[in-house]
Amino acid sequence: MTKKSKRIGTYLPIFLIFLIATVTIRCIALIKDFDFTSGYFNQRTLISVSDYMLIGVCVLFFTYLFIGKSNMRVRFELNCTKGYVASAVLGCATVFLGISMLVRLKSRELPLDFSAYLKEPLSIVELAVFVLALLTSAYLILAALNPSRYSAGRAGFCLCGVLLFATYAAYLYFEASLPINAPNKLTDQMAYLFASLFLLFETRISLDRQTPRAYVAMGLISASVAAYSSIPSVVVYLATGKSVSNSIYDVTLTLAFCIFVCLRLISFDSAKEDEESAIVAAIRELADSTESQINLREENAKLEHIRLINAIAKREHDELLLAQHGAEPTEADGDEADFSDGGGDDGEPVITEPLESSQSVEDEDGSITPNDTTEDI
What is the pLDDT of residues 231-276, one digit of tens each? Predict the structure, then answer.
């Protein structure tokens, strides 16, 4: 029997309310106070308020790790309508990002020589982003079309997505179109790092090692940061025609990931919780307890075996000492056998007994016959 898991439902209204509030305040701050030439804010009042609100929302969502149902396992299906849409949106964005990296590599006009790439390390990162973007697209296709819920191959491609977002965050750090500590660049980097962590927990689903509470908590946090980064950038770009991020590719990728995570969370909320998991958990707990008891008994048996060997060795040692003491000559008592040197010819002692005297026995006919009963022993 299965039942719906609605623990995440209490967080969704909070997510929407604070998301609308923070995004609105950041949009106003970008339009009113942002300097497109320097990449910094002239006044930080509004942007500071929105930043602190975002931090508070992330801390609130982190509490799901402690409030969410423990030992919860759900039948999380990726090949459904919501899964198809999520994979299509993020897949198109990753392909778009890979093509943009390929265009940038071509614009550098580097020869087909690895030494030329070593002279420009940023080109190596661009090539890595291009390859990882294609592999991440392969994961999204497998997630949408593979009917199996658990797949080690799909998990491997999902790890490429983890590396993609982490590598692209590093790429933004060294890319010179915006200052290193520009606030919008830092926001984009935070969004990509949280995206990398979320995909790491999604990898566990493909390996049947799901951690639902961490998955939901990281999904809410990563979706909030991604929306906070991308939606105001889209609004400002449509209103002014200028980009506040590193490029339009960043905005597209971040917005696509926000949609992807939101659809994943909706799928999770409508997924069915497997009540048999409690029985499975009890069986696993019993198996672990039995295994620990077996290990304890084996240790006790080994200790008892060692004690037995030590006891046998000590007993043999004591018997050997007793035998050595018993072989030494002792003084004979007066009434016992004489072990003096005056024995027989071969040196062995001779035991002598007193000879009996001669006696006469009267026969039946009255005659007397001498009877010598002397015996020499």
Answer: 999 998 888 888 888 778 888 899 999 999 988 888 777 665 544 4
Alpha carbon distance, N-terminus to C-terminus of the chain: 101
Instruction: Please state, in angstroms and rounded to a whole number, the distance separating the CA atoms of residues 82 and 88.
Output: 10
Closest to 59 measured CA to CA, from 221, 262, 188: 221
C-beta neighbour count of 107 within 10 angstroms: 8
The DSSP output letter for 78 is S
Strands 272-274, 2-4: pairing kind: antiparallel
Q: How far is CA 121 from CA 127, 186, 227, 275, 370, in A?
A: 10, 21, 31, 52, 135
Q: Domain coordinates of the chain in residue numbers?
A: 2-274, 275-316
Instruction: State both tokens at 242.
Output: 């200028």
Q: What is the β-pairing status of strands 359-362 and 368-371?
A: antiparallel
362 alpha-carbon distance from chain centroid = 112
Task: Give me the residues paired with residue 361 across strands.
Answer: 369
Whole-number Å distance between alpha carbons of 209 and 280: 14
CA–CA separation, 322 vs 17, rounded Å? 92
Q: How far apart are CA 59 and CA 272, in angstroms?
A: 27
pLDDT tens readout for residues 147-205: 566 677 778 888 888 999 999 998 888 887 778 888 888 999 999 999 999 999 888 88
- Residue of 116 and 276 predicted with greater confidence: 116
Smallest CA-to-CA distance from 136 within 99, 102, 87 is with 87
